[in-house]
Amino acid sequence: MDAQSVLSLDNPIFRLYANYGAAVTLKMMCLSLYVSRIRITRKVFANLEDASGKQKYVRNDDDIERGLRCHRNDLENVIPFLVLGLMYVTIGLSVFAATWHFRVFVASRFFHTVAYLTPLPQPCRALSFVIGLVANISMGVQVLMNGTF
Q1: Residue 130: Cβ within 10 Å count
Q2: Tens of each residue's pLDDT in the chain, 149 residues
Q3: 43-64: buried (b, 16+ CB within 10 Å) or exposed (e) per residue?
Q4: pTM value surpassing 0.70
Q5: Reduced to 3 DSSP states, what percent helix, strand and coil does the chain have, rounded to the nearest 5?
Q6: Could you give the CA distance from residue 147 to residue 149 in angstroms, rounded to a whole number?
């Protein structure tokens, strides 16, 4: 399969990657909107210029801080998934294996967000993090094992 057909929606593995990648990226973007909504409704801002110059609105909020930590954790995990997933598409493994790697990672990130924002008791969040991490590591190892270096 040439590079053009590998990165085509005709390739079922690339189509899976595009769908799951879009889902986890949109979830991460919705988390930004969630934090913004809390900031606006509670009038809690990080910068004086955002608070229309009113110092009393420049303060911290536990729910906002939790949302920001969750978002940062997404950035630390979703970006590697997008990079490793794209490399994984190019090595041409089975649709079954790709489906489960992508599905497990994305489900773990959705559950991680629920566990973080609710908050659910540990080890819920830690397990969801580790499951997603294992999916990423598995893809990365398979890319290295099947790559041509």
Answers
A1: 13
A2: 666 688 888 899 999 999 999 999 999 999 999 999 999 999 999 998 988 888 888 999 999 999 999 999 999 999 999 999 999 999 988 999 999 999 999 999 999 999 999 999 999 999 999 999 999 999 999 999 997 55
A3: ebbeeeeebeeeeebbeebeeb
A4: yes
A5: 75, 0, 25
A6: 6
